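Researcher: Here's the sequence for the chain we discussed earlier.
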Amino acid sequence: MRSLKLIIICCFYLVFAKSQEVVSVSLKGSRTKQQITSLFSLPLIKYGAKYYQVLYTSTDAKGAKDTLSGLLVVPDNLNNKYPKLIYQHGTSDCKKCVPSNYGTSGGEEGQLGLLFAGLGYVSLLPDYVGMGTGRGFQTYVHDATTISATADMLDAVSSWIGQNNILTNDQLFITGYSQGGYAAMSFHRYMETTKGAASVTAAAHLSGPYSLSGAMRDLILSENEYSYPAYIPNTVLGFNEAYGIYNNLSEIFKQEYIADITKYYQGSIGLVDLNIRLAQLLKANTGAIVGGRMLKDDFLNEIRTNPDHIINKILKENDVYDWKPEAPTRIFYCKADDQVPYINSIIAYDTMIVNGASKLEIMDVNSTANHGTCFTPAMTNTLLFFLGFQSITIDVEDGLTELASWAIVSNPVDDVLRIVSKQNNYSISIHDISGRNLMMSQISETIGDIDVSHLNAGMYFVTFTSQDGKAHATKKLIVAR
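Model: Thanks. This is the structure I predict for it:
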């Protein structure tokens, strides 16, 4: 095994070596507002969208220049100035099963870009290092290359959209699910620690394995059955791509599991197929699906007993939760998650609170949902959370000024909603969480009182629109009685 010194040097290079530029941007298709509304059954959709495959320069796992890929999805109304949103995708079945291949088999997660663009975000969905067009094997749950792939796409795309009449403001939203929850937290930390707290408008981290050295290590070392043993070789293969921790799989895995792991590494089978094969082998060979039993006994024992073992050091180095987020942040999870133990979210939240986070909340969005069914409530809560901060304007100073100069007084409210603004002659509309427009009021004074006594207690969205229609923004409203 190679020295940790080499590991540290490689990670330092990956984080700081910058060579990002757009290689190509290819329009792959478009959807109308009506099509996106129908696809997601969501009345809040405001725009149609165009989606593009983006190729851009970055670095591979070993720090060499490479061409990576991602998906860019843009609202179809180019008169407005939009926030940017980064969505980090979940674990993929194969190298080509990535957002930039949306419209082909395996690229289905890319459709989330349509959802975000339909809500008014210029959306970026990176494929990650070693995925899509990237060289080598994916660097699964590897902090440094997660950051480099995402940061380089953001920089490259920001330059390209500025040259192509696609307007964005300074807002940046970050989210992701499963592996993407890990990747979102990783990139969120990077942005705040290197670009400042104001660089992120809001972030939501969904059902991710944030605690590799704690929750995930404990899962692998336990004798409890776990139906997803393929995550172990997926992680080991990815770490080897970044760190060179072995020369041969036989140093880590028992012989009877190596053939299928090798087929997966070579791309002849997908991750789902690998998981089925490994589960069957474990059941046949050991009587139970316990992933740690694939590992050689001496190797497994060293991990258990030696805190300085290279695997333990790598896991610790790639934890992403021990910091203090300044931007409004949510951690959403489901307690019955069968793939990523929910304790990951608890550990992350508790640690961030101890570190002083004051704008952080956590929620079990469905205590009975498994990893697959947790996605919808987690994403729904994310969209509602983000809408409370989102601003959309056209590229004029007046619009930007108006958006920054209005507020809801005393939120939650009872029977009267009071709006305070430096402007007069603007309109206020109120929508419920399904997107239905419940009422609209025209305000001609800097202080406006609106009767909301007919609204039931609950959460709503208040949209401010300037008199000329050039600026509008949405804030969350709570009616409490």
